[in-house]
Amino acid sequence: MALSQPQLATVKRICWMLSLVVVAIPFLFPFLWMISSGFKGPTEIFGEPSLIPRTWRWQNFVEVFEYQPFARQYFNSIYIACAVTVLTLLLSSLAGYALARMRFAGAALLMLFLMSALMVPEEVTIVPNFFLMKWLGVMDTHVPLILLPVFGPHGVMATFLMRQYFVALPKELEDAGKMDGLSRAGIWWKIALPMSRPALAAVAIITFLFSWNLFLEPLVFISSLENFTLPLALSNFTDPYGAPLWHLQLAATSLAVVPILIVYLIAQRQIIESFAMSGVKG
Amino acid sequence: MASLNEPGTTVRAPRAPWLTLKRRETIEGWLFVSPTLIGFLIFFLGPLIAVVFYSLSEWNLLSQDTIFVGLANYEDALTQNPDFWQVIRNSVIFAAGLVPMNMALALALAMALARPFRGVVFFRTIFFAPVVTSAVAWAIVWKFLLQGDAGAVNQMLATVGIDGPNWLREPNWAMAAVIVTRVLKMVGLNMILYIAALQSIPRDYEEAARLEGASEWQIFRMVIWPLLAPTTLIIMVITTIGSFKVFDHIYLMTGGGPENGTLVLAFYIYQQAFEFFEIGYASALAMIMFVIVLALTVVQLILRQKGST
């Protein structure tokens, strides 16, 4: 059977799509399985596998909040991520603006100096930071979880992202602002910042997620349940012998992941572009 | 600076003001960067210097005493402690498995998804979704899926007659499992970087090659691949450094086991410092990690220089 040219093209297209679907399975499947298992009871979860739970056990989502102060932990994650994001936006845009626009003595050296931070993993400085935080008396508080991301390599990366954006902005408006008697700070706040919304949005997105997903720092600095952040809380749904309570753990993980996924689905273009802009991560 | 604004200072004959425009710019510049810089010095550079000193001392946490021991901690790691070389081996295997797999898959996906077609956004969204998901959540779900007999992966394999191993409890499979699931988590990021690079290649190049009668493979090999070289280099270094930093993923999936089979450097540092309180030894390990990452970065810079000349 000989296929005509357009038929051949259609067959090719279908094969193509099918292979993409097959590759997509291990990316999509964990999310579906996570949500469905979050509705299963502790016995059904190990029974005959099925994507649709036979009995929907809404009770899981109540027990999640009874097992540990999950609402409190959820709130901790939200407010810490917001604080880190706001602080990072302010400081990185301020420093990034200076590095982009102001010709001041030592600027080039400073850039090089800051840039060196980009290649140092958090694991390298975590031990001295542990003692620093102990000395400051802020162990088991959220202070380290806010300060370290803001001033660590991530903050430096944000500063560079802002600088790159400011460098590419046209100068005319800022010059006009100077003519009108605006101070440097005024130009930064009233002219440069409003013009750099895309960069600010990118920094905000990757910073929020960075803080939201942080694990090593909470693990090292936080010890009491009510101070946990989400990633710590999720890893903590275990029975007294340390074995995971899967139905609760997966219900809780769904509660933590699904809102982020919904925001991602709505703003996927913007979010993907933000990561492409940063170019580094992970 | 304040005194310049004070009223009532005696009026003198004009002279060159101390606060020239240039000086003013310098002061303002440093003021703008000072919050970032001060925090950076306290929470990053200070600790980085401190870790050097820590690594040269022996700590007694109970008496809070430190003794200078020179390079003993390094000697301990490099010549005494058998765990260390296993950890290095694990880290190298992890990187050697993860980096090529991640990059090849990222490039293949990017080639498939760089040009618009119906459904392209759908697929891009799916492949990128794990990147925005927390590593903890991803690790928890995969640990669940990869359990021995009860895990969904093995149950599915059983339906086609394959008896799957207990993925996370057998040393070789455990390493393979953490590598593959980590690739699935992070490949979307490299895919996006490759897509951006592919979209910046003018289509004329490809058209011209096609007119010359080049096959699809030749076009890729002779036209696209060389043009992607700078991106490939950057991605390679970022991914390699990233693979040495992996902690949460392995901590949650295997806990470093079985038989330390997945204990990688970042995890080993955490374990020594915060489980065994071997502060000096852990700091020496941190310095070794720093040197490894530094070396990788320098290699990248050299390669980039070679590439551009």
Automatic annotation (TrEMBL), chain B:
Entry's transmembrane regions: 30-56, 92-114, 121-141, 173-198, 219-244, 282-303
GO terms (BP aspect): transmembrane transport
Annotated Gene3D superfamilies: MetI-like
One of the record's GO cellular component terms: plasma membrane
InterPro entries: ABC_transporter_permease (IPR051393), MetI-like (IPR000515), MetI-like_sf (IPR035906)
Membrane topology of this protein: Multi-pass membrane protein
Keywords annotated in UniProt: Cell membrane, Membrane, Transmembrane, Transmembrane helix, Transport
Principal subcellular localization: membrane
Localization, UniProt: Cell membrane
Domain ABC transmembrane type-1: 88-300
Entry similarity comment: Belongs to the binding-protein-dependent transport system permease family.
Protein name, entry field: Sugar ABC transporter permease
Organism: Mesobaculum littorinae
